[in-house]
Amino acid sequence: xxxxxxxxxxxxxxxxxxxxxxxxxxxxxxxxxxxxxxxxxxxxxxxxxxxxxxxxxxxxxxxxxxxxxxxxxxxxxxxxxxxxxxxxxxxxxxxxxxxxxxxxxxxxxxxxxxxxxxxxxxxxxxxxxxxxxxxxxxxxxxxxxxxxxxxxxxxxxxxxxxxxxxxxxxxxxxxxxxxxxxxxxxxxxxxxxxxxxxxxxxxxxxxxxxxxxxxxxxxxxxxxxxxxxxxxxxxxxxxxxxxxxxxxxxxxxxxxxxxxxxxxxxxxxxxxxxxxxxxxxxxxxxxxxxxxxxxxxxxxxxxxxxxxxxxxxxxxxxxxxxxxxxxxxxxxxx
Length: 334
Ligand code: ADP
Ligand code: MG
Fold this sequence. Notes:
The chain is α+β, with helices and mostly antiparallel strands. The chain has helices at 2-15, 45-63, 71-78, 85-100, 110-115, 128-135, 165-179, 272-296, and strands at residues 24-31, 34-41, 80-82, 143-146, 149-152, 184-189, 192-196, 205-210, 218-224, 228-233, 238-241, 244-247, 262-269, 302-307, 312-315, 322-323, 329-331.
């Protein structure tokens, strides 16, 4: 959590480097278990940011698996529920990315995540047999969506939209900004950054990508407009037991923290939901798997991969927009 906080402040420092005109409005607040900041530029900036904040709180109250009155909480408790359009959309997207990534993205891992104590921060290393039993419930293919009703077809199955909800939320904020006539804005939902248009002076936004090894340095800085930049890494949330570090992104194949030699994955695209879902998925796949997925995918996105050995790889679409002190390889589409 401390690291998420540091990341947020770092980003704010960078973002406030832009020339805020007289019609700029920002707000920072805590929601979805992280620090968030929302900035709009333009005549309606204040009302747009207020509406954005309201939207974040509304979506949190629908999508959180841990808030007792949320729709997802009720679904997990009752096994079947009629849900609002937003919740249905996020669940359908989660199931789509689960299929697209061949199961690396798995929105039904909550029984396993709970065993590790990640939701309530009461961390422990579960027994292998406990993990194996909980994994039997982590079956996205056993979730059915019929119009506005979702059914979890395995008894005890529970969903967790934590790897996709913030991306969906940042996209919704950009929609609100557009409806309010805002042409320039940026949101940072605990490391999920999404930008609208360019800065008020017409120049591109600068988004710094945190270096998982050293909090005070960056892997590099991206110059972008109209993009969602989402980073996933084991360094964000973890605990250490008997000298070994365990983090919060689990490999659905074995129920243990994904260990494929990657420290962080950043996904850059126009779609917040896609960037969020794929950053988690590509982290699970590891460097080779992530590169393979990027090369054959028909989706329009770019990646920045950083390995535990300190190797940096950037995809061809953003290579020219990425500035780094470090050497990096460029991965190209087939
Ligand atoms: P964060 O939201 O912490 O920035 P992610 O978007 O990568 O990072 O989401 C991680 C969260 O997603 C975990 O805390 C957990 O709730 C959930 N999760 C863990 N493993 C997976 C997985 N393989 N697929 C989908 N969700 C996962
Ligand atoms: Mg994610």
